[in-house]
Amino acid sequence: MRSRTLYEKIFDAHVVTELGDDRALLFVDRHLVHEGVATYARTRLAEKKRPVRRPDLTLGVADHTVPTADRSGAIDYADDDARAMVEDIEAFGAEAGFEVFSVRDRRQGIVHVVGPEQGFVLPGALVVCGDSHTSTHGAFGAYAFGIGISDVEHVLATQTIVQRRLKSMRVRVDGRLPAGTTAKDLVLTVLSRIGVAGGTGHVIEYAGEAIEALSMEGRMTLCNMSIEAGAGAGMIAPDETTFAYLKGRRLAPSGAAWDAALAFWTTLRSDPDATFDTDIAIDAADVVPTVTWGTDPGQSLPVDGVLPDPAAAAPEAAAGIAAALSYMGLSPGERIATVPVDRVFIGSCTNGRLEDLRLAASVVRGRRVAQGVEAWVVPGSGLVKAAAEAEGLDTVFREAGFAWREAGCSMCLAMNGEALKPGERCASTSNRNFEGRQGEGGRTHLMAPAMAAAAAIAGRITDVRDYL
Amino acid sequence: MTWPFKGIAAAFPRSDLNTDVIYPQSFLRRTDIASMDRHLFHSLRFRADGSAEPDFVLNRDPWTGASILIAGRNVGCGSSREHAVWALKAFGIRCVVSSLFADIFKANCLNNGVAPVTITETDLNACLAAAHDPTRCVFVVDVANAALVHDDLGSIAFDLAPADRQRILEARDSIDGTLEHESAIAAHEQRSAAAMPWLSLGGAS
Ligand code: SF4
């Protein structure tokens, strides 16, 4: 048999029927639904009287519009539309028969944190969600990708999705990440290398010693931001780290089913002689703490770097650099590590997991948030929050002057109304620094959790290695 | 909607145009799809006081009546929000032209009958230049023949797979199309349940 990549194997195993023109109808093993898309899909399915075909393979959560201020009492939504979306997914789940972790459920959280946490996402599975960061789940050796709302409706009605075969790219990361750097620094480095269109039309498989050494949290951070390169998916072959994470999770198989699954999962990898359309090699030793300076995630710098000068750039890049600097309120030649911040946001589906909070807390412990800085920790899920509290991390953050909040997407997208004010500058562990992403006129610098924690303490962007 | 059609093309040459810019997050809670054009390019199209930004292309004649958007390379990257396409469509845009489309944005265009057509970088520059000129900004979009037709530039071949062209021309509900494969879907469900029983759920509580 022809040698195949991991992606090709999973694709082939899910073909319901070939549709010609290099397209196939693929079966969806796992469908995650959040309230930001459920509202539309529910209405439109009802109009056509179409039932949800496989509610058993569907898991709903409320995350995008839920407030993350204390929810022990009444819930203070941004507006009636936000409340309606949450009520809608609750009603949708009840009438269609799928499970929903809504705002009062202790397991509620960001869809890409909750799915893995529950063991809903498994190696070799085809996973979709009406959200571009579905690429996160490729960390488990799943083929996982984001879809639009029409396609959410299509999956709910048919449990299938039409896809073309994509090209493949392998990113090999040899060696070990240096102290003070994490998967976030690695993915920002990858993005600055290949650019925000570099993965378009491709599925990226990450491999190499540095990848194998990553925890599942780190792998999720890396795969999460594959979409920022435009990639159709990011994935990592499952291994002992993957299996150890999954074992015992509520929706993961157990007993004989676990043994059978494990026997199959251990075979799930690209054939040794499989060919990739593009091969990228990165030396982990070159990765340093990295910060974005501009308005797309590919515009980043080592923390000791200086801001680019449009006058010195290639002519076709100059206008873009100038526009990004202008939006960000920064000047060419300025050192990124001197830029003061107003807000700090630690959270999101990229970096809102327990390991991320531990790393941030290790910097914060015994220190104080700088005067004038408003710093938030928003755990990725209720279970992450509870686990962090059990270790006392909430106390560490609170004593330092951080706000310790409820789980949700919060200021990653500001769709729940929690937003930067125009001109405010934020050190953020999220995934997008687009214009207005965290609030109209807001300015976002993406970085790793420990780097954001250090920025909160220093009141400016700073090198986390000075705090370790 | 009939094809081919003749329409005014607006040029917005920014490359890596993300869907946050096309349709900002503050309006993602709205559910009235037909009126989403009001929020299209909101922070670029409107000033803080709500008045129209006179320099923005879609606020200037003749482009207030644009039905074609000629964008820079890598259009629609970032968020999967279909609102970006809904807003474009509500404004009257029926065709987006670029040299590279982000995958999810392209799928969203196809699902809404908006033609995502890919041309070469050289052709794109020529089309952008023409669209910038109010006297030269009219194009014919001929999906059946995979061509943009312009008075001076002539016929410019575009890339859109035959199956995708068909979808645009037939404007058929894709769910109806898929449900015709019901027996194949059911067969896959059975195969999968037998070969990979661990993928079945339902017993969980
Ligand atoms: S945390 Fe941010 S990127 Fe992740 S799902 Fe929520 S809004 Fe999207």
Task: Note down, in words, how this protein is organized.
- The complex is a heterodimer of chains A (468) and B (205).
- By secondary structure, chain A is of the alpha/beta class.
- Chain A has helices at residues 6-13, 35-47, 80-96, 111-117, 149-158, 183-194, 209-212, 216-224, 240-246, 255-265, 315-328, 348-351, 354-364, 382-390, 393-400, 449-458; strands at residues 15-20, 23-27, 30-34, 58-61, 99-101, 126-129, 143-146, 160-164, 167-174, 202-207, 233-235, 278-283, 290-292, 300-302, 343-346, 374-377, 403-404, 425-428, 443-446.
- Chain A folds into three domains: 6-164, Aconitase, domain 3, CATH 3.30.499.10; 167-286, 3-Layer(aba) Sandwich (Aconitase, Domain 2); 291-467, Aconitase, domain 3 (2-Layer Sandwich).
- Chain A is 33% helix and 18% strand.
- In chain A, helix 2 packs across helix 3 (80-96), helix 2 (35-47) packs across helix 5 (149-158) and helix 13 runs parallel beside helix 16.
- Chain A is globular and about 55 Å long.
- Chain A starts with 5 loop residues before the first helix and ends in a 10-residue tail after the last helix.
- Chain B is of the alpha/beta class and 205 residues long.
- Chain B has a single domain (5-197), classed as Aconitase, domain 4.
- Chain B has a seven-stranded mixed β-sheet with strand order 4-3-2-1-5-6-7.
- In chain B, strand 6 and strand 7 (154-157) form a beta hairpin.
- The interface between A and B is large, with 78 and 56 residues.
- The complex binds iron/sulfur cluster.
- The site of iron/sulfur cluster (SF4) has 14 residues of chain A, from helix 4 and helix 12.
